[in-house]
Amino acid sequence: METRILPTDLPPLLHQAVDEAVRLLRGGEVVALPTETVYGLAADALNAAAVAKIFEVKERPTFDPLIVHLPHKKDIAMVADVPPEIAAVVQKLTDRFWPGPLTLLLPKKPEVPDLVTAGLPTVAVRVSSNNVFKRVVQGLGRPLAAPSANRFGSISPTSAPAVQAELDGRIELILDGGASLHGLESTIIKVEAGEKKPLITIVRPGPVTPDDLKAFGRVQRIERTLIDEASEAPGQLASHYAPRTPLRLLEKPSDFTPEPGKKYALLSYRGDPEDGYADLAEWEQILILSPGKGKLPEAGVRFFYVLRELDNAGVDEIIAEPLHEHGVGIAMMDKLRRASTKVGQAPRSATFEGNPAANSKGVGLHFKYFDARGESLNDERNVPHWRQSGVPYLVTFCLKDAILPERLEQWTSDRQDFFETYPQPWSRTVRSLYQQQLSDPLQDWLDAGSGECLLKDPAIAGIVADALRHFDGDRYDLAAWVVMPNHVHVLVTPNGGHTLEKILEAWKSYTAHAINKALGREGEVWQATGYDYIVRGPESARAIAAYILDNPAKAGFETAYVESRI
Description:
Strand content: 15-25%
Oligomer: single chain
CATH topology of the largest domain: Alpha-Beta Plaits
Mean pLDDT: 84
Number of helices: 15
């Protein structure tokens, strides 16, 4: 596919470009458009098939929601309901900030495809102030879903050439509207009724700052944990905004000692030698966000452009100076932390005695275990599956060909017979018998490495590892996991009403699509059935985590994709 770039700087050219973009969008295609924040990859938000092309082009996981851009302020009702208790403050906010870089999370209408919202009950909505974007969305007369026009996890583009560098040959059309005005993604907020004032929670920082919002209610201060736990908003993954080149965010100059033979580039705030960073190394390149002035708005406009330039500098590592963490500096520091390979990494030690461990985002984990006396669900769809809120499970899921069909059929029948013979809850003796008769043989078959063993390929295993880490610390907490050649073990605790079934479904559906795409193939990737075991105490949890950690050595397999936080 040839990707065309159409200019919009003269009225006749703008008219032609808008008409062509609207034609493609009406036909269910995707188009890259300028906005005042960053360039967006747009599709008709009410056309699920068109929205699916956004995910395909960006290689974006389908459990990451999209922002919906409306033609006019009055068009909220196209996609969202405004609860009466917050209607007044929503009106004030939209009067003040729309069109502009503020996104609101509101209850979605049934007309909005679940693909847009990742199955969540809320939709993220805003109205763009960019003239080119406004003409296109108003010409279409329908809302546009438009995340940043880059491949998932890479640097957001703020110019048409940057979009072309990311998506050339993947899309048909880019409208060139010049450099983005703000250079940072929109601020995302959630509004709730409060006792005295409305509560405004900033779920993603951006050009609209806490100081801008405080006149409209009590602003929830942005804390690192809040940002990491915000599952309902787009752009909240640790992998967002990351350059290909490793990036390290420093808190002070003494944090950095260059390694001999490595090439470094410096991302500087104002380029002042007195800040103490310029003399730390023989820099291959130094790029400055706000030369001499140290003005945060200017730094915000240049932020993604400078980051992209340094990513293309051919160095081993980008070193970033810290910015003043107020105004738009909050948003830039958030993005640097997400991109950084050295800041905020999880501790790799934990205990299961009720002391907090840490997930991959540094969020504390507090473990509790299955209580037979507590409220629980015994799911009898195939065989009993105990379910209890907030407790860890060992989950195993396997590639389609990991176990011979006739062997799996016999094992399933034997398991059904076992459950009929020994109704739950089980004694320790019966659990041990189940382990010997059913769990151990299953594990031995898996460790034998039957089938194609697609996960031996580090690139394919990495797809699974990224999916597991994706909502760690948010929808679930990972305590231990391993990607083996033909199966995956995970010790996981679902959070906040997210069920084990939905979590497993998300892992398998996303990775199946991504694996097939990477291998240029079609068809089923995973067995339909997963295997889970509810953890009943710290001793059991430690034994399971130790088994997961030792599984590669036991099976004679080397992998980088194994973690345990014990």
